[in-house]
Amino acid sequence: ARTDVAPSAEQAAEYEARADAHMQEEAFRLARLEYAIAARFDPDNGALWHKLGVCYLRTGEVALAQQAFLREVAVAEDPQRAHGALAFTHAIANRTDTALEHAIAVHQQSPDGNTLALQEILDLYSRRRDPKAASKVIAALLNGAPDQAEAQSAVGRAYAAFRLPAKAETFLREAVRLQPDHLPSRLGLISVLMQQNRTDEADAILQEVLADHPDLLPARALAVEVALRRDGHEPASALAREILDQHPDYSWARIRLAELSLLAGRFDQASALAAELSESGDAQTRWSGLWLQPRMFFGQGLYLRAIEFCRRLVVLYNYALVALMLQAQAL
Fold it and tell me: What is the per-residue pLDDT across 250-267, written as a single tens digit (0 to 9) for each?
């Protein structure tokens, strides 16, 4: 018989307690070391693997987080939580099909059908642009949770993703009726009104949101779009610059300011911002900066330089379709 089980569990508990304390202090890199050692002492403890996965997410190490959550799936009596975490991590890594597999697993393992899992599945089908599959999920959501604002909002977001703003508006308004302070629905409603060129209506709702939440970054981002639609590049750029000055880590503001500079023909400013984006540690932000470069060349009529840059992107990132589309624009 083994005699090391109890000591290992005790040692794991000591390391876990230290890691928990580090998490409280937001010392995530220290916490991940302690959790990793604890999990080595007690490898069949699913809760430990989950904590380690969450810690990796806080340090931006998504691949390692996925490995930890997979270990949780293997040892946990109820792997629902781990599948949910894997659905989230694959979604943020743009691996939609894998995210769907885990979201569907959560739903199948839920005795009550798990409305939240259905919402995640619907969002993923929307991202994959699969209206046929999405329609089945919409029916299930509306049948199972007709009076839930979250469900109505998820359906509205799906229709917005499928470029059906009138349908989206119906469900988003119902979500707001059910829960007037539901921010995702209020913000979604603003976006679909903008899609329908109903800027004044959108701005009226936006001002209400900003009155309640003056520092809410998604709402301030929508204010940039309203200003662009109503007043042009300069006021919109000023708002984007204000957001960036106050929140230098908010990559959307830097990306949008670069795009607005490009639209206004301020190529030097756009180029400087694109260079900053290209050096980002976040892959999606880095790609946004690289994507701006050929667009700037096109804007300046430098078609050969744009095509050459596209070819470099093909070699570096294999974004062949995007690059070919850009080349076609130049011909």
Answer: 888 888 888 888 888 888
